[in-house]
Prior knowledge:
Elements: H1 9-26, H2 34-56, H3 63-84, H4 93-109, H5 114-122, H6 152-171, H7 177-198, H8 206-227, H9 235-240, H10 243-251, H11 264-272
Helix pairs in contact: 1-2, 1-3, 1-4, 1-10, 2-3, 2-7, 2-8, 2-10, 2-11, 3-4, 3-5, 3-7, 5-7, 6-7, 7-8
Amino acid sequence: MRTLAAPSPAQLMVHADLALRSALAAVAGTEPSRLGRAAAGAAYLDLWAGDRLLRADGGNHSAVARFLLPRLLMESVDTLSVLLGERAQRNTGPGAAYREHARWLHRAMWHPDHRARLDAVTARLGGPPTGEDRLARSLTSVRPAALPLDLHALLDALERERRAVVGACVLAPERDSAGNWALADRYALLTAAAACLDGWRGAGRGRRITTDRDRLVAALSRIAIRLGLEPVGPDTELSGALFGEAVAHCRRPTAPARTAPARTAPVGARRLVGA
């Protein structure tokens, strides 16, 4: 039986984006609950972080994106069921469209190439990160004064985690599959954190800079939670604060699904940062 080719990270982004749009369309005209707003904000944040990662780590060729995005996007799209409630079970309309995109992401997560995705990342872990590898240097070179104050402690924790991952690569290049998965997961999450930080534009005033700051803080806090670190604040509150940005993102037009996969990384990233 022929196995379909593994979906590209850009295709994953298209389906996660359309799932969010469908979910918000299904609840249009209603007042979502606090948890529903947080679910939409979290899905938007994971899309934003995914776009940053694709731009920073080689787009569809990124081993880290191919390994990390299926799980991250599936998790956040699944959580949108909190926003939809009983609407998620309807057989027509936006609820049905949401379910179809969610099923697509589930199939992508458990595609037969999942071991190859892991191996492609662990191939980068047989020694200390060097050269162009993003974890070969500090997560950010931005002066602390230019970063949001509430990120200082979190960035210290993330930087300690980066050094620990580098040390693990040096000391244990040969690992069993469970150890490989855990180290690859930490490595991939930290690479995504670095990509988010590389996009920080800490200058200017007004709503734009406030939104950039809130997005960065919330995205890094979600990554910290996945790493088992102490986040900046409650994920529900941080994600919920981005609900308005999620709605604004979904009001912008999207490319047809048949053409979007080839262009999702740059186009999606420009939309998400408001360019």
